[in-house]
Design a protein that fits this description.
CATH class of chain B: Mainly Alpha
Largest sheet of chain B: 2 strands, antiparallel
Number of domains of chain A: 1
CATH architecture of chain B: Up-down Bundle
Shape of chain B: globular
Radius of gyration of chain A: 17 Å
Strand order of the largest sheet of chain A: 8-1-10-9
Number of domains of chain B: 1
Distance between the termini of chain A: 29 Å
CATH topology of chain A: Alpha-Beta Plaits
Oligomer: heterodimer
Strand content of chain A: 15-25%
Number of helices of chain B: 9
Number of strands of chain A: 10
CATH superfamily of chain B: Formate dehydrogenase/DMSO reductase domain
Strand order of the largest sheet of chain B: 1-2
CATH architecture of chain A: 2-Layer Sandwich
Structural class of chain A: alpha+beta
Distance between the termini of chain B: 24 Å
Helix content of chain B: 55-70%
Largest sheet of chain A: 4 strands, mixed
Number of strands of chain B: 2
Order of helices and strands of chain B: EHHHHHHHHHE
Number of helices of chain A: 7
Structural class of chain B: mainly alpha
Radius of gyration of chain B: 20 Å
Helix content of chain A: 10-25%
Shape of chain A: globular
Order of helices and strands of chain A: EHEEHEEHEHEHHEHEE
Chain lengths: 200, 289
Amino acid sequence: MARYGMVIDLNICIGCNACTMACKAEHATPPGVFYSKVLEKEVGKYPAARRIFLPVLCNHCRIPACEEVCPTGATSKRADGIVTVDHELCIGCRSCMEACPYGARTFYNREATYYFNEKTPFEEIKQDFPDGIVMKCNFCADRVDQGLDPACVQTCPTECRIFGDLDDAQSKVAQIIAEKKARPLLADKGLEPSVFYVGA
Amino acid sequence: MSAGLDEFLIDVKPQREWGWLVITYLFLGGAGAGLFLASLYMTHPWGEAMGLLLLVIGTLFLMLDLGRPERFWRAFWRARSSWISRGCYFIAELVVLGALVVLMEFAGKDFGLLTTLVKVGAAAAAVAVMIYTGFVLSPSAAIPFWNSAFFPVIFFAYSLLAGIDFLILASPILPPPAIDIAHLEKIQFGLVLFCLLLVISHFSVMSGSATAARKSIQLLTRGKWAVLFLGGVIGVGLVVPLLLAWPMLWQAGFQTVFAVTAILALLRLCGDYLFRFLVIRAGLYDPLL
């Protein structure tokens, strides 16, 4: 069985947020809910000051702290390593948010829309979740099951995101991680994340 | 649902998900279990009933904090790994067994071994309710300030302290048997010392810990929460009651004046609530880079 993961090359990322928007379009996430986003920081001093970008999403940890603390079983890990949230089981206790060191989850606590308090026809169809629950990236599990890449990977104009099977040494993702010595974020937390970064 | 600008910055971030509803549960739930345990020790059914009532009220606050409170029963599903789930069983066990104890004591019934078993079960559940919230926080990989083995013990000590304080405050209006306030005040003196030792030990360990834990300590000792922590938790909640109680305890034939012990109890309760408030509020996530 595959173990899906991703590598993101920070040397290539230009901070365009195309991944953020592709994700919102794919999942029709409400205002304030981001499965994928790009963090920023200004480093250095003028005239050598520059901005650095850090695209973040759920790390789909091999040992997911969120799954362990979830009291209802809403958070679970699939055989292929994708960590998902069953919106029908979630009670909105947010213990998973407290357990996740990556800030990958968002509490959707009141129904909200982007356009004049009314759902667009697109949102009517895609938003099949209630409010009062915790939401997060699921590596676009529906797309992955159809053999497609996650939306953020497909849309990235610089191809800084590569998705694939971490356990297959021949896969592009595994080769880039090995060749470019990619590292996960906060490896010291011991959760064995499945998202790796080049240049971190 | 919150996505402020700081959500998009690479930096230490405060936890904002658990607020006053959870904090009030931590306080009332712990105090209720502590009150039940102290009353069971003194065989005082009115105190026991009051403890259960506090626990139930506290649990209502916790349920109100849920995004989908009508699904609360699902929280019983994952006791094999989740401390919140285990806590649900502890609370349910305490309410059921505690109610049986209260009923038996009010009715003056004693069924021998069965009664003993029910009392032991209720006492164990009360201890578990006082401790488990510490285990909800202490395994946290995300928030280093919470990642400490001290929390289960600190929460136990603070819960018992608060439970006895509620018993002291309620003593004038509770029906017989009479409550030995002087005896309780001596226990409180020891508990306050114990809490002080635990809090100092926790801070000492955390000050040499991860980035976010050190920042939490800074927030509490030199930052925006310093007045509440040093003045409220340490000063009003622990040191002042110790200093006020000290001369009384060493008098020969120590007798308490209710007004004095009530003031001490109120100070300690304020310190207890503030401690739980600040522990939750000072939780910070490590920066990702």
